[in-house]
Amino acid sequence: MSLPSTTPDTPPDTRAAADPVPAAPPAEARVEVEGLRKTFFDDGRGEVHAVDGLNFTCTKGEVFGLLGANGAGKTTTLRVLSTVIKPTEGTARVMGFDVVQEPEAVRRSLGFYSASTALYPRLTGRETIEFFARVNRYPRDAVAERVEALVQRFGIQEYQDTRVEKLSSGMKQKVSMARTVAHDPPVLIFDEPTVGLDVMNALEMVRVIRELRDEGKTILFSSHIMSEVEKLCDRIGIIHRGKLLALGTLEELRERTDRHYLEDIFVEFVTEAEDGFRGVLGPAGTLERGA
User: Chain-centre distance of CA 138, in angstroms?
Assistant: First the structure.
């Protein structure tokens, strides 16, 4: 799995024996979160409940959106699911595997994309895809075919043999998307994927996510950009101060609030959760409607 971290110039060894991605569990839910909590201690604020009792599931062929302002707990939740950090309480399972008890199986079952995730600068685009396929134990005899298919799919033929450090932002985006799905995981996490992208590259990201959903992938999508969530998500969870305030389809959320636009729906739920809240979250929580 491609984890959200800063990477070194030289990747680790990948000579371990190849294994297929774990098979799906009998249950329909591919992602299960129950009573999830993550608490940090901050010198200035004391105990901080970044994630505070979340419950939700995600199924095959679904884009599940986590919508919230910056600092709401979206990224912390996704980092727990990707085994980067451990929960304080509760359970989380991916393809039936517990994130604490079976972290390696979880990592092999999902791909993680974030605009802040670095690539190895000294590898070429093709080498990057191959590396992530091998490190996540894609069947060894099928790696070459898989890499070629992704080079073609994401249109990186012209610069596949160019070092990543020489690529433009748009080219790096395509390589990063290819390495996210290199091992063909059933579950994909996209954490604020369009941050820093221009309009055309952001639209390309949305198109790819739709295609992956249509192929049966389970996708967790976090954003604070309302238009992206409206376009992409089959169900939406509104998260604020680590709590899930509402969960449902866009139509269900409209019915509950008698509001049409997602921005208004979001503000209504947050207003109910905080006395006197009228849509102003401060510098760290600015909402964006998007294009």
Answer: 20
CATH number at residue 114: 3.40.50.300
Q: C-alpha 255: how far from its chain's center?
A: 28
Indicate the pTM of the whole model: 0.83
Establish if 12 belongs to a structural domain.
no
> Domain containing 165: what range?
29-285
Q: Residue 288 — φ and ψ, nearest 5°?
A: -125, 135
Determine the distance from the C-alpha atom of residue 84 to the mean position of all C-alpha atoms in its chain, rounded to a whole number.
13
23 within domain boundaries: no
Angle at 82 between CA 48 and CA 183, to 5 degrees: 165
How far are the Cα atoms of 2, 8, 118, 263 from residue 5, in angstroms, in the given order? 9, 10, 7, 31
**Residue 21 is assigned to a structural domain of this protein:** no
> Looking at the domain assignment, is residue 22 inside a domain?
no
Side chain identity at 257, as an amino acid letter? T
Residue range 85-137, pLDDT digits in tens:
999 999 999 999 999 999 999 999 999 998 877 899 999 999 999 999 999 99
